Structure formats: structure tokens, C-alpha cells
Amino acid sequence: MPSRVWMYANYHCNIQCTYCLTESGPKVAQRALSPETMLAVAEQARELGFTDLGVTGGETFLMPHMPDTLAALSANLPVVALTNGTLFSRRLLAKVEHLAECDVALQISLDRPDADVNDEMRAPDNFRKVTQAIPDLVERGITVRIATTVESIEDNELDRLCALHRDLGVPDSEHIIRPIVRRGRADTEDLGVEAVASDLPSELTITDDGAFWGPFGPTVKDGVLDTDLLVTRTTLPLETPARALLGLLEGRPEGADSTLNIR
Ligand code: SF4
């Protein structure tokens, strides 16, 4: 059984990236999980033998409860939380400071070493905000991981990006590079690689609408939630979707996981 359980904390976002799998943006429905549900998922995941938690969105830090919820989740299992890294004002930095004492890593998107190219697919001023937030978080002792999502990247550009993340205080071991997956807005924009279930990492993923095959499952296209990778509408008790996912995995050939290096 895959070891991580993901939760979609929310679907709305302060920005609107061109390749967003969930068509997130400021005006979309929140589809939020309550902190109580997130905590119940974490507790039951631990009891069922899962070893890690992931929290994604939308922009997770639009949820005011997020700093405290991440700390509470991490009392159960180690957490990686995805964020676009654009909301870390002094006020929010003060609120997340205690995460340095918790088993929480923040995964921040940074795609390119040049501001203009990076911001093309993300948002104006994105590069400046992100490259300011990362050292602010690192200074406070918070683990930061950088995710680079690209169709392709030249060696020279990648070298400069890696030099940049090292300068910002993030080691190579905390840098992941992944392709754009052709779902959601990426599909509308004709971007990314086609992926079917066997190409995608299978990690039980809980949303307000049900449980999915993995974090690339509960995507949104033309305002409608994709259900091709829906496992169960029931999310709690967690044992129900966990058993259903296990049933699906048992029919899957060994070694077929994540063939496109999507993570
Ligand atoms: S990719 Fe992330 S940061 Fe960009 S719009 Fe989607 S949720 Fe927001």
C-alpha cells in the first residue's frame, strides 16, 4: 500500500497559473476540508499504518487555520504541505514560526531562474515573492522543498535554477523537478504530458468530494471536478477508501508506478 495520504485542504488560490491542474484561482469554490476532518484523516492514517501526510490545494495558506492545523497533523505523521510561497508576510511568518519545531516541510513552486520567464506561467511578481519567502522560512528553521514544474528545461537554465535554490538555502536533496500533467487548465492550454492512472503515483487522496487514486486525480476541467480517478465518495472512516484503493492496486502490475516520473 502506498505510504502517504494526501489531503486537498482547499481549491481556491490567490493566483491563477497557466498549468494549474485544479483550475484554481481567486474566484473558484473553496471545496475546503475542515481542520477537524483533516485531523481525523491524520489520526486514522497513522492507525492504519500510513507513514506520511501531504497537504495540497489551491493555496493552502489562504486557510487561516493552516499553521495550527499543520502542527496538529504533524503530531500524527510527518507532513509535506504545498504552497505557492506568495503569502508569507511578516504576519504569516510569525504564525508559521512554530513549524520549525514540527515534522513539517513546505514545498514551494519555483520553475525558472529568471523572473520574467518564471512569472509567465504563474503570476506577476511571483518570482520576487517566492525568492524572498524561501530564505525567510529557511532562516526560521523551517524545512523548505522546491518543486519545479516544467514542460522542458535546458541544462543551462536548470544549472542556474539549482545555483539559485542553493543560494536561497535549499539543498539539492530538497529540489524536485516534474513534468506538467495534461489535466485541468494545462489540458485547456494544450500543455503537458498525457497521463493515465498507471503513470501517476497512487497515494490515497482525500478531498471534500471523495477519495481519489492520487494527488493528480481530483483535478478540475471547465469548472467540473474530474471523477475518472475517484475511488470512493466516502472519505471517513479512512479504512473505506484505503481498502478500495488497495483493491485497485492489487490488479496493477508490479513496477508500473509513476512511469512518467510524476510526483
Ligand atoms: S498551480 Fe498552485 S499556485 Fe498555481 S493556481 Fe494552481 S493552486 Fe494556485
Automatic annotation (TrEMBL):
SUPFAM superfamilies: Radical SAM enzymes. Gene3D superfamilies: Aldolase class I. Residues 1-215 form the Radical SAM core domain. It comes from Actinomycetospora straminea. The keyword S-adenosyl-L-methionine applies. Coiled coil: none annotated. InterPro entries: Aldolase_TIM, Radical_SAM_PqqE_MftC-like, rSAM, rSAM_sf. PANTHER family: PEPTIDE BIOSYNTHESIS PROTEIN YYDG-RELATED, RADICAL SAM DOMAIN PROTEIN. Keywords: Iron, Iron-sulfur, Metal-binding, S-adenosyl-L-methionine. This is Radical SAM core domain-containing protein.
